[in-house]
Specification:
Length: about 200
C-alpha cells in the first residue's frame, strides 16, 4: 500500500453552518490553491495547483472519508452521501453531515477549540521550483488522489506514521541530492567559462 501524506494549512479554518434542512454541517477548506505550507524537514515548502484533486473527486467519489483528527475510529462522513467535496476558485471545500453522536465535536468547533482543516493524499504529479525561494525548494502538487479530510485541533503537522516519515525522508533526500547536483553543475559551468576566457586572453 502506498504511503499517504497529511497536510494541515493554518489559513484553512473549519466552521459550523446551518444547512437548508436545519441540520448543522461541518464546513471547511481542506486546502487553498497556491498557499504555501510551513517548511517540511526545513527543506521544502509545498503548494497545490488549482484543480489538483479534480480527477480524484471523480475516480474516488465513493472512497473519500471525513474523520475527526484523522482517527478512522471517529468517522464523520463518507462521500458522496454524508461528505460532499468540490473545488472552487479558492480551493477544495468539504461539507460534512455529521452523525448525531458527533454533537460534542460540533460544539468544540463552535467554541473555537478546533479550528483547523487537514487532508490526506497521495501526490501523483509534482514539480519543483529551485530558484524562487533562496532558502526552501517549492514543491507544487499538480495532481493528487484525495483520501481523507478532517477537522483538527493543531495548525501544525501531526505525528506521521513510519511509512509517511520514510516517504518524506525520500523527498528530502531527493531535494538535497538534486540541489547539490545543481550547485556543482553551476560551479563546473563557471569554471569552464573562466578557462575559455583564460585561453582567449593567452591567444591574443
Amino acid at each position: 500500500m502506498e504511503p499517504k501524506e497529511i497536510r494541515i494549512y493554518t489559513l484553512s479554518p473549519v466552521e459550523i453552518r446551518q444547512g437548508a434542512d436545519g441540520k448543522k454541517k461541518i464546513v471547511g477548506y481542506a486546502v487553498r490553491w497556491g498557499q504555501l505550507s510551513d517548511p517540511i524537514y526545513d527543506i521544502w515548502r509545498e503548494r497545490f495547483e488549482r484543480g489538483a484533486f479534480a480527477q480524484s473527486l471523480i475516480d474516488r467519489k465513493n472512497e473519500i472519508f471525513a474523520t475527526w483528527q484523522h482517527d478512522v475510529g471517529d468517522t464523520l462522513g463518507r462521500s458522496p452521501n454524508t461528505l460532499s467535496l468540490r473545488e472552487d476558485d479558492s480551493g477544495l471545500i468539504y461539507e460534512i453531515d455529521p452523525p448525531s453522536w458527533a454533537a460534542r465535536h460540533v460544539e468544540t468547533i463552535e467554541r473555537g477549540d478546533v479550528r483547523g482543516s487537514s487532508f490526506m493524499f497521495i501526490a501523483r504529479v509534482v514539480e519543483y521550483d529551485w530558484d524562487s525561494d533562496p532558502k526552501y525548494v517549492i514543491r507544487t502538487v499538480r495532481k493528487a488522489d484525495l483520501y481523507e479530510v478532517a477537522p483538527v485541533t493543531m495548525p501544525a503537522y501531526p505525528q506521521s506514521t513510519a511509512s509517511v516519515r520514510s516517504l518524506e525522508a525520500e523527498v528530502a533526500e531527493y531535494i538535497q541530492t538534486e540541489r547539490a547536483r545543481r550547485v556543482q553543475a553551476q560551479r563546473d559551468y563557471l569554471a569552464r567559462q573562466k578557462a575559455m576566457r583564460d585561453v582567449s586572453i593567452q591567444s591574443t
